[in-house]
Prior knowledge:
Layout: H1 2-19, E1 22-25, E2 32-36, E3 41-43, E4 57-61, H2 62-68, E5 71-72, H3 75-81, E6 84-87, H4 88-93
Parallel strand pairs: 3-5
Antiparallel strand pairs: 1-6, 2-3, 2-4
Amino acid sequence: MKMIRIVSIILVLSIIILFYVPFTFNPPGDTRMIIDHNTSTYIAPPCFEESGATNYLQETTYKEVKEKGYNSNSACSDELTAAQKLTLIEYLTSPNWDW
């Protein structure tokens, strides 16, 4: 009887953590980014058309962008690379930063 109570408590806590407790998630280091070397800025791929980028571009990762200290090209890139507060189930089921 005591074992059932313990398992039930663990199950309820797990469900609460999965569905209701928000955590802050940053983009993974391997998220695709575009670097504009002429302006020393980065562009999130969904924002590329509106970015007005020059012709000295390189595809890289979010980790390398942060290591080089490049700034965002636009508010669109800022919004897409901002940390997000999500529950664990939202993070696991939604395609965040999947470019």
